[in-house]
């Protein structure tokens, strides 16, 4: 008679190392398959279309978070960017939200004189800023004026670093004047230093400007962008050149000294060099303002 009983030792299943590897591989493949083929949630276009759009209307100075933002830079000294910086404003938050860049920083506030107003108006799927109409009063000091202005932040001074800055603009010939500043930091006179995007003269020429302590450099193509259509304007400063790009095409460039440093205690400004008389007030619409310091 045979004894069919097995010893406790022989009763244990034997698993080879190869079997363990095969099992682990199969489990991993299964998990990978689940990860790869798990259906993604579908959001109906009809649902997206029904969502409320940010509110257009008059900007009245919604500055929550603005006062809490500390100015970067001490009195008597001006710093420069120590690392790359990227700032972009789309203005798509609506009139009930503070105007900040896409990262929720670098807040802007509206400043105005003589009843000037800024409005957020529909533009594509978002919003753009509409500036006061071109003033035709004989006494310029009575003209309505309005701009967007930030706080001093020396991290936005490029120094001699390469940078790109620009905006999208919509203008007609009725919006033109001798000066229409789109986006700037600093001034071109008084030894302050500056970078600026503008659309000047009655010809509607866009131009890029950078200024050091003693000289102004301007890249200006002989083309008209005040034609009632949106145009994307970009200024690019490389080590020794300033280039104007319009709608993705290089249109003008000028050499600049590699040692020219842009560093000032002024804030970012959009639509003019200030709210006071002689501010080179912009008229028309502005969208997608940005600054990239490399």
UniProtKB/TrEMBL annotation:
It comes from the Bacteria. Pfam families: Laminin_G_3. InterPro entries: ConA-like_dom_sf. This is Concanavalin A-like lectin/glucanase superfamily protein. It comes from Actinoplanes friuliensis DSM 7358.
């Amino acid at each position: 008679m045979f004894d069919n009983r097995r010893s406790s030792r022989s009763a244990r299943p034997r698993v080879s190392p190869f079997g363990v590897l095969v099992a682990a591989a199969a489990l991993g493949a299964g998990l990978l398959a689940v990860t790869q083929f798990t259906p993604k949630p579908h959001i109906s276009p009809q649902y997206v279309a029904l969502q409320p759009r940010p509110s257009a209307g008059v900007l009245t100075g919604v500055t929550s978070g603005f006062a809490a933002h500390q100015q970067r830079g001490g009195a008597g000294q001006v710093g420069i960017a120590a690392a790359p910086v990227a700032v972009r404003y789309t203005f798509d938050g609506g009139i009930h939200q503070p105007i900040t860049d896409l990262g929720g920083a670098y807040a802007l506030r509206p400043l105005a004189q003589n009843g000037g107003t800024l409005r957020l108006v529909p533009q594509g799927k978002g919003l753009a800023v509409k500036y006061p109409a071109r003033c035709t009063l004989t006494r310029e000091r009575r003209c309505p004026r309005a701009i967007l202005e930030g706080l001093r932040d020396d991290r936005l001074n490029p120094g001699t670093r390469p940078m790109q800055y620009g905006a999208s603009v919509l203008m007609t010939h009725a919006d033109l004047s001798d000066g229409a500043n789109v986006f700037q930091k600093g001034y071109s006179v008084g030894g302050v230093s500056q970078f600026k995007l503008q659309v000047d003269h009655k010809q509607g020429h866009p131009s890029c400007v950078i200024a050091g302590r003693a000289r102004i450099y301007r890249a200006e193509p002989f083309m008209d962008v005040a034609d009632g259509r949106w145009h994307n304007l970009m200024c690019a400063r490389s080590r020794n050149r300033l280039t104007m790009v319009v709608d993705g095409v290089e249109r003008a460039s000028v050499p600049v000294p590699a040692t020219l440093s842009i560093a000032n205690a002024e804030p970012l400004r959009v639509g003019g060099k200030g709210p006071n008389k002689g501010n080179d007030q912009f008229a028309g619409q502005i969208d997608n303002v940005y600054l990239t310091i490399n």
